[in-house]
Amino acid sequence: MKSSLWQAVKLVFVKEFTVGMRFKAAWAAMFMFALTTLACVSLALQGGGLEPKLSAALLWIIIFFASMAGADRVFADEDTAGTLLTLKLYGGAQPVLWGKMLYTFFLLLVLSFFIAPLFLVLTGTEAVAGGVFLLTLFLGTAGLAAAGTLLAALTTGAQVKSGLFSVLMLPVILPVFLPAIFLTAAAFGAGEVPVSFLGGMALYDAILAMGASVLFDYLWYED
After folding, report:
1. CA of 154: how far to CAs of 73, 104, 158, in Å?
2. How far apart are CA 214 and CA 140, in angstroms?
3. How far is CA 178 from CA 1, 3, 76, in A?
4. 142 near 178, Cβ under 8 Å?
5. Quick one: pLDDT band at residue 47, thresholds 50, 70, 90?
6. So where does this one cross the membrane (predicted)?
């Protein structure tokens, strides 16, 4: 990435981070959903444990729906304030895309690493393969960020934005979501770790990011 482009990406990231820290709407929605869900799971289990496969599926369901509470707000501030056209005039497509994608990745990564330890403690689950578990969280979050940023741009201005975003998001993220569940289950002791799934997740993340980069130019400069 060229130096000038990287500087522009950093400016967009800093802008997103500053706005996020000032208003905290996305942060509050995501973390409150996560806390509420984890509390319900803990109360329902009443000290009992879960099978590794069930634990893995439940963890990623919580991460997915918690991320949906904030990932669709990538362009919400500009859309609500009416400054989206100004951003289009003064911000290039690629710096805006990568800056917002990087911020979304940071936001979802913080969310995932907030949820995961609490989930392990509250469900009594042990991560046998800790390195694989952390890498799976990282790759899964990267896929959510790439898909979420592009779909947020696609659904900006839609009257049923939240519902449309979730409907579009699930099929796009399934090639990341399903391997993440299998890898997490293996990391929780459900069997051998399918290491090839990590490569598949990384490849699909790269395809999502590059696809978003190509498509975003058409979205950004569309009349």
Report:
1. 12, 16, 9
2. 21
3. 31, 37, 29
4. no
5. low
6. 25-45, 57-76, 97-122, 128-152, 164-189, 201-221
DSSP 2: -
* Close Cβ partners of 98 (under 8 Å, ≥ 6 residues apart): 1, 5, 9, 12, 213
The span from the CA of 151 to the CA of 72, in Å, is 8
Q: What is the pLDDT of residue 159?
A: 44
What are the backbone dihedrals phi and psi of residue 152, each rounded to the nearest 5 degrees, phi first?
-65, -40
| Sequence-distant (≥ 6) Cβ neighbours of residue 142 within 8 angstroms | 105, 205, 209
- What single-letter DSSP state applies at residue 223? -
* Domain count for the chain: 1
Which residue range(s) make up the domain with 68? 3-220
- Cβ atoms of 56 and 188 within 8 Å: the answer is yes
pLDDT tens, 149-201? Answer: 888 777 765 444 556 677 788 888 889 989 999 999 999 887 787 788 889 99
Mean per-residue pLDDT over the chain, rounded: 81
Supply the DSSP string of 129-173, one letter for each residue. Answer: SHHHHHHHHHHHHHHHHHHHHHHHHHTTT-TTHHHHHHHHHHHHH
The torsion defined by the Cα of 117, 123, 124 and 125, in degrees rounded to 10, comes to: -70
Q: What's the sign of the alpha-carbon dihedral 21, 26, 30, 35? A: positive
Question: pTM for this structure?
Answer: 0.85
Q: Which helix (H) or strand (E) is 51 found in, with range?
A: none
